[in-house]
Design brief:
This protein is mainly α. The two termini are 17 Å apart.
Length: 172
């Protein structure tokens, strides 16, 4: 499967962050809920108890991540609510490990992403949440980690959908 290139991620960041009209942001938001209603709903439910700053950042990141996947992989199917819940429950133990997230774990995730995932997407998430000096307002550490968990879950789901459309060629 083709990976999402850096430029696609950067274009998505520029497009979403460049929105200046409230009506355009509402259209982008509605589009996310039109194409991935259950996944987007789960994402929003996950962040609903966070600070307003964390919610805003998380939502913008979801828009950027979805746009990146849509630009690279056209016509992804919508994940059902049952699939979303089942996948989250299946990965809950892994996500609990992320509550102790540290530099070594991030390096391991990046290495895994380089071999079998979407490295530019993961790099964007890590950079945005943990390395962005202009993160305003400053998020609490637990909000950073919880946003990391939901963003990682969100992109893993989208990546699975992309894999359905473009499975690797099996070579014998």
């Amino acid at each position: 499967m083709e990976r999402i290139p850096f430029q696609t991620v950067q274009n998505s960041i520029d497009d979403i962050c460049g929105i200046t009209e409230e009506s355009d942001l509402e259209k982008a938001s509605q589009h996310l809920f039109d194409v991935q209603p259950d996944l987007a709903g789960f994402f929003m439910e996950f962040i609903e108890d966070m600070s307003e700053g964390a919610q805003d950042l998380g939502f913008m990141m979801a828009l950027i991540l979805n746009r990146s996947f849509e630009d690279q992989y056209k016509d992804l199917r919508a994940m059902t609510e049952e699939e979303v819940v089942s996948r989250f429950e299946k990965n809950e133990a892994e996500f609990e490990k992320y509550l102790q997230l540290n530099d070594d774990m991030i390096a391991d995730l990046q290495a895994k992403s380089n071999s079998e995932g979407q490295p530019e997407i993961l790099n964007y998430i890590i950079e945005e949440l943990f390395m962005s000096p202009e993160l305003e307002p400053t998020l609490a550490a637990n909000e950073q980690v919880h946003l990391f968990i939901i963003c990682k879950f969100f992109v893993d789901c989208l990546n699975d959908l992309a894999n359905e459309k473009a499975p690797e060629l099996v070579r014998h």
